[in-house]
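Q: For a teaching session next week I want to show students how multiple molecules come together into a single three-dimensional assembly. I've collected the sequence lines for a complex. Could you give me the predicted C-alpha cells for the whole thing so I can convert them for display?
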Amino acid sequence: MCGFSADWLALREPVDAAARNRELTTRLCDWRRKQGALSVLDLGSGTGANCRFLAPLLGGDQYWRLVDQDPALLAVIDPIQDRSGLLRRETTTLDLAGSWERLEMPPANLVTASALLDLVSTDWLARLARRCQSWRAAVFIALSYDGTICWEPALAGDDQVRDWINRHQRTDKGFGPALGPDAAPALAARLEERGYSVALRPSPWLLGSEHAPLQHALLTGWVAAVREIAPEPADELAAWAEQRQRLIDQGRARLAVGHWDLFAAFTS
Ligand SMILES: C[S@@+](CC[C@H](N)C(=O)[O-])C[C@H]1O[C@@H](n2cnc3c(N)ncnc32)[C@H](O)[C@@H]1O
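A: Of course. Below is the structure for the complete assembly, covering every listed component.
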C-alpha cells in the first residue's frame, strides 16, 4: 500500500495540468467528437484531478466512475463545474491490485488514469491492456514518471540520488514489482500488440522558484525513499539534501521531472 495525501495531490494538480501534453489532449478531444455518450473509468483517481481536467474538455454526455483504494481521497472530490448537467460521477473504493475487471459499471469507452502507471507491474499492465481491448475502449494515461530528474544548478550527487530514486521506483507499491519509468513504454507495447494505435508524448514538470513548495515536497519524499533502500550513504545524502534545500530556499533551484502521456485508440 502506498499513501498519497490530499495536500500532496493538491500541490501537484496545477503543475500536472500545465505539464500535460497538448497534442495528446487534442487527439483525445478529436476522438471524443466521434463518440456518443461516454463511459469513463478513472483508475487511481485520488481526489479527482484527472476528471477535473478532462471532463470540461470532453464535454457532452459523460458518466465517470472514479476508483481509488483510499476513501478519504474520494471523499474530498469537489463538485465539477458542469453547466450542461450531462456529467454524472460515481466513486468506488477498491484496491485495484485485485480483480478490478469485475467492477460493475457500464462498459467503459474510455479508460484513463493520471500519475498512477509507474506504480504498477508487468502483469497488471497486461491485464489492463486485455480489459481495455475487450471493451474496445480508448486509453488515456497521463503523467507517468519517465526516470528523468534534472536539477539546476547541478550538484555532485544528483545522478547518484536519481539512480537510487529510480531503483526505489521499481519496488513493490502494492501491484507487484513496479515498472516505474518503464511503465508507459511497456503499456504502449502491450496495446500495440492488441491492435491499438498508440501515441506516447512527453509531459515534463518544469519547476522554477515559484514552485518551491513542490520542489521541497519532492526533495523530502525522495530523500525518504532513498533512505528506505540505501541506508549506508546517510551522511552524503544528508549533505546533498541540505545543499539542495538551500538552493530551493534561495529561489535558485530549477527542476525538470520527466513524464509520459499516452493515448491509444482503435483506428477502425
Ligand atoms: C499519485 S496519486 C494520483 C491521483 C490522481 N490520479 C491525480 O492525478 O491526482 C496515485 C493514486 O493511486 C491510488 N492508488 C495507489 N495504489 C492503489 C491501489 N492498489 N488501488 C487503488 N488505488 C490506488 C492512490 O490512492 C492515489 O490516489
